[in-house]
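Support case: zinc ion complex. Customer-provided input:
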Amino acid sequence: MTYSASDIERPASSITLSSSVPDTAAIRQAVLAQTDYMREALIQLVRAPSLSGQETPACETMEALLDELGLVTERLPMNTADMASHPLFSCPCNPDGERYNLLAVMEPPADVEPNMGGNLLFNGHLDVVPTGPESLWEKQPFDPYEKDGWIYGRGAGDMKGGIVCALAALRTLQSMGLRPASRIGINTVVDEEDTGNGTLVTLGALQRARTKARYASFDAVVLPEPFAETLMSAQIGVCWLTVTLTGRPTHVAYMNQGLNPIEAGIEIMRALREVQEEWNLPENRHPAFAHVEQPININLGTIEGGEWKSSVPCTCTMGIRASFYPDRGAREAIEWFSHFIERTAARLNPDLVVRIETNGFAAPGCVYDLEHPAMQLLAESHEAMHGEAPRHLACTATTDGRHFRLMTDWAVTNYGPVARNIHGVDECVSVGSMVRVTETLVRYIVLYCGVVAL
Ligand SMILES: [Zn+2]
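Agent response - structure generated as follows:
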């Protein structure tokens, strides 16, 4: 499907496109009038806590916001057992429980000729990562507040702010007396921060036509993740490994007879650091990451072990997040890291017992097609509103965009607002940037989907 601004703006026989197409000044003004809505919606969403595995309060808030906009929303329950053999499946870290994803759809008016414009889906995750010690935060992480143009709170940036931009874009059009001339969907998911299975469940349901919306009903996806108004050109592959080392405990008085698994863990991390350095060398980088200084990051995210200061410990358990380039499959990467860790441990001491679990991310990387006409139109929309072409980002994190990129032929990218301290302390999102992103999205909907008078 090839759309350009000139195609879409041409008057169509059955819909009043050209006479309805608002110019950039009108869009700017209409979006600005939605700023308070954006603030309020975001504050509501941040106030509904949604740590991975406990997202339901935020899902309920989201349902109310979608309802208000007149979208038809359905719940897509997490049913990971159904997905377990899928190549993009990650072993869950949380039980499915009663958790669900949302797919909200606004259909084009019945009298609009089908396929007048592109069908556009927004996808965003409602789950957030742990806050860390609340004492380090200026205020409570789930008690959002605004200061100097930034809204603070866990999830404000990653990524409830971006989701609000998509809502605000639709609300802006309504305020202008317009509605999209083709199908628009908003899909909010759970479990993005540890597996990506929420989006996988959504796509699975769409593929098996278990939803009211048909599988073939979208052809472009935008994920408003907080990457500073860039268009994502590629993302790194990510896997999680939980490594438990068992040594030989002894009284510290006879330390030489013991085998310390915590110290062995430190040595294993040192060896992984060397892998990281090697893969980051310019000559070893994947072409999509050629200009990224440190695309590969291998992080020791959690560690526990030991029982007593005067005992050589029994065990050490390390939670490791490792990344790899898009030319490698996730299972292959997990196998590679597992073997590397086992070999390193055996070299350190053949008596070390190593157990590796792989719950969590098994997420291959991908390269996005920003040359796709639908993505070029998004870039043009940004440029029309903000006077310069958006920068491209080869992302050193994973996003659910990979599922759409690897499972469909839809045009996909991430484009969302400026945020600070995501996954850190005092996370916040720029209200000004949310306004800018919404302006781009309104323009994009107008050009890509077409609009008709309400
Ligand atoms: Zn995110």
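The first helix runs from residue 5 to 9.

Case will auto-close in a few days if no follow-up is received.
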